[in-house]
UniProtKB/TrEMBL annotation, chains A, B, C, D:
Name assigned to this protein: Inositol 2-dehydrogenase
Stored InterPro entries: Gfo-Idh-MocA_inositol_DH, Gfo/Idh/MocA-like_OxRdtase_C, Gfo/Idh/MocA-like_OxRdtase_N, MI/DCI_dehydrogenase, NAD(P)-bd_dom_sf
EC number(s) stated in the UniProt entry for this protein: 1.1.1.18
Reaction catalysed by this enzyme: myo-inositol + NAD(+) = scyllo-inosose + NADH + H(+)
Residues covered by the Gfo/Idh/MocA-like oxidoreductase N-terminal domain: 4-123
Species assigned in the record: Microlunatus ginsengisoli
Any matching Pfam family: GFO_IDH_MocA
Lineage: Bacteria, Bacillati, Actinomycetota, Actinomycetes, Propionibacteriales
Quaternary organization: Homotetramer.
Function comment: Involved in the oxidation of myo-inositol (MI) to 2-keto-myo-inositol (2KMI or 2-inosose).
Amino acid sequence: MTELRIAVLGVGMMGAFHVDALTKRIRGAKVTVISDYFPEKAKEVADAIGARVVDDPIEAINDAEVDAVLIASPGAVHDVQVNACLDAGKPVLCEKPLTTDIASSRVIVEKEKSLGKELIQVGFMRRFDPEYVALHQLIVSGGLGNPLMVHCTHRNPAVPDHFNSEFMIRDSVVHEVDVTRFLLGEEIVSVQVIKGVATSAAPAGTNDPMLVVFETESGRIVTDEIYVRTGVAYEVRTEVVGEQGSATIGLDQNLQVKRTDGSWGGQITPGFVERFGQAYDIELQRWVDAAKQGTIDGPGAWDGYAAVAVCEAGVKAVRSGRKEYVQLAGIALPVEEEPIPDIRAPDLIGDRP
Amino acid sequence: MTELRIAVLGVGMMGAFHVDALTKRIRGAKVTVISDYFPEKAKEVADAIGARVVDDPIEAINDAEVDAVLIASPGAVHDVQVNACLDAGKPVLCEKPLTTDIASSRVIVEKEKSLGKELIQVGFMRRFDPEYVALHQLIVSGGLGNPLMVHCTHRNPAVPDHFNSEFMIRDSVVHEVDVTRFLLGEEIVSVQVIKGVATSAAPAGTNDPMLVVFETESGRIVTDEIYVRTGVAYEVRTEVVGEQGSATIGLDQNLQVKRTDGSWGGQITPGFVERFGQAYDIELQRWVDAAKQGTIDGPGAWDGYAAVAVCEAGVKAVRSGRKEYVQLAGIALPVEEEPIPDIRAPDLIGDRP
Amino acid sequence: MTELRIAVLGVGMMGAFHVDALTKRIRGAKVTVISDYFPEKAKEVADAIGARVVDDPIEAINDAEVDAVLIASPGAVHDVQVNACLDAGKPVLCEKPLTTDIASSRVIVEKEKSLGKELIQVGFMRRFDPEYVALHQLIVSGGLGNPLMVHCTHRNPAVPDHFNSEFMIRDSVVHEVDVTRFLLGEEIVSVQVIKGVATSAAPAGTNDPMLVVFETESGRIVTDEIYVRTGVAYEVRTEVVGEQGSATIGLDQNLQVKRTDGSWGGQITPGFVERFGQAYDIELQRWVDAAKQGTIDGPGAWDGYAAVAVCEAGVKAVRSGRKEYVQLAGIALPVEEEPIPDIRAPDLIGDRP
Amino acid sequence: MTELRIAVLGVGMMGAFHVDALTKRIRGAKVTVISDYFPEKAKEVADAIGARVVDDPIEAINDAEVDAVLIASPGAVHDVQVNACLDAGKPVLCEKPLTTDIASSRVIVEKEKSLGKELIQVGFMRRFDPEYVALHQLIVSGGLGNPLMVHCTHRNPAVPDHFNSEFMIRDSVVHEVDVTRFLLGEEIVSVQVIKGVATSAAPAGTNDPMLVVFETESGRIVTDEIYVRTGVAYEVRTEVVGEQGSATIGLDQNLQVKRTDGSWGGQITPGFVERFGQAYDIELQRWVDAAKQGTIDGPGAWDGYAAVAVCEAGVKAVRSGRKEYVQLAGIALPVEEEPIPDIRAPDLIGDRP
């Protein structure tokens, strides 16, 4: 196989971004088929690169000129499309989420397992970012000793109004879910979401920012400040605090300027393309190379399933305001502590100054 | 009054540090009387600077050659000594804590109020640190817009074994309690302590590090990673995240070295003297200048009381594992949410990979 | 033309690096022919990628299956090979230097001009580095006001012994020659080399480090510290000082670590592949894309000629210890100041302490 | 002696700054006498602190209520005043320059030597700055191996018009003269001044910025970019490049802000008070403590003499455009290289692109 022939399902922002990369920057791949819910959108993208439009995504998957599938369609249809890829025995790179509920993700994990080979790669591209790779390597090599805590910061300059609190968990925090699992090499067992004061830029009812706290199997604590309407820039930082030292990535200090207003500094990365564009290319190239061998080279179906399960608990935690446990097959849950009764002082005299 | 004549009560590490500063670096002050539980220790310090020893601290406070008092004795005796200063009408700089329980702190606040002038200053020296002053100024001037979240990091290289989880709250986290109140200008209403994996350097039963979460009156969230056995250095960082930007202090980047092992970096501040030595001097000098006028120039009795109240809730939260409310006179508590029942999936099939 | 068929002349370190990129990372290109002075080396590289060996480089250039040529052979044979590419009308990406003397570079510039189209691109890959691109953009957009001075730092951890003072000018400083011309958009008119104390790691007679000072047409001053045996890492920094501010690139601060020895920092980029690997890929991809259109997309023959002329003056300056003027067609030289007689105090009395 | 009684000669900006420090921040000192060329200015300062005015500076030096003298008068009168202090046998802290010419400085050095004790301290306050102290300590401890090059940056936001090129050498570069001597522990033997394009903010005929190059006894090279009208801030950086690593101070990164315009950074130190205020206090306190013992604790007369000699050569180099040798007693000068004839290419054909 000289060139991997790929069907891209869904050519919204992410899908179009991937088509562009596969056409202009990735070696050994060719987008042959485009499918989208909006046929005219599919035609526009397909025409620009000389691909065919196949309206029905399942037909696109099964097309004779398709060796592998890239799914960038809305999450709600991932379940059907990923299953069709498994049925066709074709490698698939599925953008997050794997599916939109735990049960269907779980079924996919079992189904792929029964096939005896990994066909599903999930699009957690931070695992391909050079800074995360260096941080992971530092941890694995023992450079920090036993990792005890992780602090994540995930800030976007602005998002559309439909990014409500739950959407922020499923679409943004999901990256720190995978980062946690990648860096620490273990599952997340509980999620707590602490809501504070919301920015005035947030629609009513949306808690932006939020503080998300994960607890892992071994009891490590991970914090994630998720704040998607900072008005500032795209800031993604991760600090790992270990027994032998700590390490931080995402400091964004490449071009430093001193200005006539007496300030110093630089530009913060404006968006995910500037920050993770290279990671996306590495992800795609490695997937293309692996897909030619009929396998994957990145996070697999279980990683997608685990992320769905953690986000599900996260959404529950947004609603409940308390710690929620993650329901993941084969992962023992900790014994819950007895709740302590809430005793408040009845009559506090006097006034504050 | 040319020189303020000061009695120093307690000449352990902090007391001796203050005697040294008052003798060598502070203008307009003279330590005339030393008192300590161990008379020989008092004599040693007093002889070196030509001061008198007065064994009984209350006598020392009331000594005719004493204009003002610096209390650096153990917290348990602060209550009696501060009250004696109020009775004598003498200005007092009291190292934290004001007292060791909420009730006695509250009584002192009311007693000072009845005197009609402020005599008590509490030793929260971070308010005099140039970086915290700059951060406070940035917030107050509106440079960050409305502050939404604060993230604190408080790390010591090593501490004695008696620094258990509760001690860490009362002796270390107390600084972030005051920093929070200073930077945000409002009270803390609840504390939650999230324990994770402890460093192997901690004695059994001590949760080091811990993640402490404060909630303020207006609902702002403050996190504090307290980790006192890092083996690394003295790292005190604070990041304030506002609607219009964020700001961080404590980055410690003054001397930058590139080394032959291919690394770059510098020395982290080894201890509190190097980090806050200047702040202590500023604190002392401003207190000496104010005491000559019979007043204070720094955090007062209410600040000491509020810190005691928050730490009390913090210690409760260490024990309970849940959010505990702060009992502070005149501060309304939020209505508690209904606890959500803990429903776990009964039978999760299959195994993890 | 679907794939640009490329002959690579010279498969030493750089040539092999380019073959690897063209085969694994660059889209739309295929290495069809390899030529090297050592046939067995050529065969080894060619066999690994399924290319043919053509021993004679001129035959390789004229091969029917070759659309474009990448020259990574020793500088001494560039003249003949580049001329052959011009004769064949084939696009060529020539690693620096264009040729090894001013006269032959000048002839090539004129010869290409007579062809009426640009076929020659010279391998100054820093122009494709995102940080240099950002710095250039900042200057061009007026973000620094009129640029007044530029300070460059060029440090390698170690080099072979044949890197003597002249070689350091021709092989290392040549990059800052091009960076200066790229950032300031004007020619260099003089070079001075100030030799100081040499590192004990340098062979006898080699001045490492040296301070190189360029003067541009408009009189701007550019300093370059060239130090190729630091034992530290690959450090390439450039600071531009303008009327409205200054800017620095190359600060290398992506992964920051705090260590148990009380230090903070990170890893400095170990070598040029880590620092400029991405720039090389961008350079190659853009050249491949342009070559398909029969043109170039990067520094051209004049840039190669100017670099040769400046390095020639630099080598003269190493020998003479004084400012040497650059001989470049059409560039007016400044009027030399009268030398000032050297008057030294005849009899200085007394001793130093 | 409980309090050192000090006469301050000259209460312009620096003198008034010192009076303020001696009165408010320095322990064990008292300004008893003020003298200034403008009696009303002297009276104003003296009245504010309860000191006496003595119009004649020599009378002030010899006043019975004066134990030590601080000279902050114009440089032109330093010679007479310092000599009077020596004659009176009183310790003196003399702001730079020691005197305005080499010969008179040399005479003072010899005269003090004949007294057999050091009475003169010169106001090079950077030696008391914690960052310079740390850098010096790093060098002395061998942390960088043998120092090979030093790069200094000295930038002011703005200065009055009388800061012409020569004034910049005598008043600004003089600090790097002392820093070089302090850090490297050896004398400077030559100075070269390379003028480039001047900022449009500079008056006609003033070369701002300039690049100053020092050569030390052992042949080390030191560069100093002096640029006093940046419009930006007060930036003083020093990088020492050694055989085993390099180190930089002056990075100014304590408060880091991310802003809504997508930039990050902080405030650069606005002026010398903010940057070196602490160093001035340490300098004064240590001088006061030493003066009580009749000695000095900082740079002495030879340091003042050496600085005068280097600045003299620097001013000559501004005029000549070439390397000028420093005339310092007992310091051997290097043998000058033969000048190389200036051969330019006679007829360069063709045009630039």
